[in-house]
Amino acid sequence: MENIITIFDLKTLELKQLLEIRGLDKTGIKLTLLNRLKEAMEKEGKFPEQYDCRIELNVEEKETTPATEEVETVVKEVLSAETHTKMEMNDQLIMLLDYMKGMKEEQRRMGTKIEEEQRRMGTKIEEEQRRMGTKIEEEQKRMGTKIEEMGTKIEKKKKTR
C-alpha cells in the first residue's frame, strides 16, 4: 500500500515551500497557511485531501512496515480531524467577526439616524416654542387691550354715577 503525503501531513516549513512555489503569501500561523494552500489547490483543480505533495516537495517515500503504516494512518486521521475541526472553528470565527462588523456598522448607522432625528426634533421643538411664544405674546397684548378697555369702561361708569 502506497502512502501519500497530503497538505494535512506537512510541517509549517513545507506548507510555506508549497505557497512559495505558487507565489502566494507565506506568512501566518500553520492553520492560516493550510487554509491558503488548500484554497489555492482547489482552484488548481487538485483535491488537497488526496493530492500527494511529495511530487512538489521532491520527497522520497520512506520504507514502512505494516505496523508503522497503521500508526501513521491513525495519526493522520486524528490530525486531519483536528485540522478540519480547527478549520471549521476558524470559518465560524470569521463568520462571527463578519457578523459583528455588520452589527457594529448597523449600530453606527442607527446612531447616526438617531442623532439626525434628535436634531430634527430639536428644530421642530424650537420652532413650536417660537410659534407658541408669539401666540402667547399676541394673546397677552389682546388681553392687555381688553383689560385697558374694561378699565376705561369702569372709569366712565364711576364718573357717570
Radius of gyration: 41 Å
Number of discrete helical segments = 4
**General form:** rod-shaped
- How far apart are the termini? 136 Å
Helix content: over 70%
- Structural class by secondary-structure content: mainly alpha
Uncertain residue segments: none
Please give the number of β-strands.
0
Largest sheet: none
N-to-C SSE series? HHHH
Q: DSSP strand (E) fraction?
A: under 5%
- Average pLDDT works out at 82
Domain SAP: 7-41
InterPro entries: SAP_dom (IPR003034), SAP_dom_sf (IPR036361)
Protein name: SAP domain-containing protein
Region (Disordered): 109-161
Quick description:
With 161 residues, the protein is mostly helical.
Name the descriptors:
161 residues, mainly alpha, 4 helices
Report on the structure:
The chain has four helices and no strands. The chain is mainly alpha-helical and 161 residues long. The protein has a domain at 1-62. It comes from Psylliodes chrysocephalus. Residues 7-41 form the SAP domain. Residues 109-161 are annotated as: Disordered.
